[in-house]
Amino acid sequence: xxxxxxxxxxxxxxxxxxxxxxxxxxxxxxxxxxxxxxxxxxxxxxxxxxxxxxxxxxxxxxxxxxxxxxxxxxxxxxxxxxxxxxxxxxxxxxxxxxxxxxxxxxxxxxxxxxxxxxxxxxxxxxxxxxxxxxxxxxxxxxxxxxxxxxxxxxxxxxxxxxxxxxxxxxxxxxxxxxxxxxxxxxxxxxxxxxxxxxxxxxxxxxxxxxxxxxxxxxxxxxxxxxxxxxxxxxxxxxxxxxxxxxxxxxxxxxxxxxxxxxxxxxxxxxxxxxxxxxxxxxxxxxxxxxxxxxxxxxxxxxxxxxxxxxxxxxxxxxxxxxxxxxxxxxxxxxxxxxxxxxxxxxxxxxxxxxxxxxxxxxxxxxxxxxxxxxxxxxxxxxxxxxxxxxxxxxxxxxxxxxxxxxxxxxxxxxxxxxxxxxxxxxxxxxxxxxxxxxxxxxxxxxxxxxxxxxxxxxxxxxxxxxxxxxxxxxxxxxxxxxxxxxxxxxxxxxxxxxxxxxxxxxxxxxxxxxxxxxxxxxxx
Length: 524
Ligand code: GLU
Known about the structure:
The protein is mainly alpha-helical. It is 41% helix and 8% strand. The chain is built from 19 helices and 11 strands. The protein has helices at 4-8, 60-75, 96-106, 130-143, 153-165, 236-246, 262-272, 302-307, 312-320, 341-347, 362-377, 380-398, 402-412, 419-425, 445-454, 460-470, 477-489, 497-504, 506-523; strands spanning 47-50, 79-82, 146-149, 189-192, 201-203, 207-209, 226-228, 251-255, 278-282, 285-287, 358-360. It starts with a helix and ends with a helix. The site of glutamic acid (GLU) has 7 residues, from loops. Its EC number is 6.1.1.17. It is found in: Mitochondrion.
C-alpha cells in the first residue's frame, strides 16, 4: 500500500512540478508559489513525532527517521513524541514495540510524550484511539466527504483486475458504486471522496511536488481510498492525519517512500479545514553499491550492532550523517565529523539536508566507533562506566582482577575499534599464550630467546643491545623485538616491550620465553 502510487501517479512528479527552490515559509498552506530562499529551518519549538508501526525490529532507516525528528525537536527546544501506529493488527510483530523502546533508550533519544511517558495528547498508541477516529470519520460522513462502501471483496477484486486492462490504463480502481447507494448493513468500509485533482504539496527538502492519479475517461474510476476498515480500525492515511493534527505536530520528517501519500494527506487536511504540518521527506538509504539496503548491511536489527561492540554514540554519529552534514562556519574550515549527540543537536539544521540517497558504509561505522571508544576510555568517568559494563563478563572468562583489567585496558586503548577486540585479540594478556598457529618470526628466534634468558631482562634495552652487538651483525634489533613479541604474545604486533614488562612482570615474561623455546624445540 505504501508506495503503490509512486510509479502510477502521473509523471508530473518528475517533470512538471518538481520546483527546485526551497519554499519561503514552513507553513505549507501559506505557500502559493515557491521562490528561491534558503532558510526553512524553524526557529520556534517544533513538535516532531516518530511514528513507527510495530511490524518488525528497528533498523538503520527507521533509526535515522527517529533521530532526525529528535534532532529537529531538540535543536528548536521542542518536543519529541513517540506514536505507535499499530492499527494494522494483521502485521503486528511480537516484541517489536519493546524493541522500539529499547533501541531509542539505548541510543539516548529521550521521549517527551509517548505510550509509556504519557502526555497531553494521548493515548499515543493508535489502537487505543478507535473512538477518536470514529468521531472524525463521522464528521466526514456528515459533510458528504466520505461514504460507506458495501462492495464485496469479489467485486473489488474484479474492479482492480479490470482497471489493469483499460487502455489507457488507470491506477485508481474504485467506480463509486456506493457513493449514492441506498444499501445499509453492519459490514462496510468508509471511503474518502477524493478530489478530482490533488493539490500540490510542499516539502521542505524537495520544494513543491505534484502527484495526480491517472484516469481513463471512458471507464472512470476514483482514488477513493478507505479511511476506516470493516473492523472499525482506521487506515494509515486517516489515523496519521487525525493524530498529527490532534497532537499538534508541526513538522513531519519521514522516509521518501511516503512522499506519494502526502497529497492524500493534504486532501484529508483540507476536508477537515485543518492546516497540514510541514513535511520533510528524507532520501532512501542505500548500500555503497547503490542498491536498496540488504538485510545483511543496513537492514539489521540495531541490537545486532550492539552485540558486535558498536557504541550508541558511534551509531548515532554514523546515522546522523546519512543525509545531513554539519556546515562550515567559514569556507575551507575543517569540521570534525566525530560528534556526540548533544553536539549534533546543536548543529542540526534541515537547511543542510541532502537530497541524494544516503550511502551506508560499514567501515565508516567502525571508524566512528574507534574514535568514540578512544574518547570514552580517556574520560575518567566514562572509563569507569565501561569497566563496570565489561568487567563482569570478562572476569568470568579469565578470572582476572579488576585493577589488572583496568591497567590492561588503558594500555590497549589506542588499538581498540570495539570493546569486543579486547576479548578477541588480547586474551594472551590474561592467560597462557597459545603458540600453536604462530610462526617464529626469524631463524634466530630460539637463539635470541635463550640469550635473553641468560641476560638481565630487567634492563631490556641494554639486554637487547648486547644480543645485537654479540651477534656480529647477524641479528638486528628488529629480530630481537619480534622474537620477544612472539614469545610474549604469539603475534608480531601489540603493545611495546616495556608495556608488557609493566603489565605481566618479569617472572611471567621469563616463563613465556621458556615456553616458547620449548615450543620451537618440539617443533623442530
Ligand atoms: N507508520 C508509518 C511508518 O511505519 C509512519 C509514516 C509517517 O511517518 O507518516 O513508517
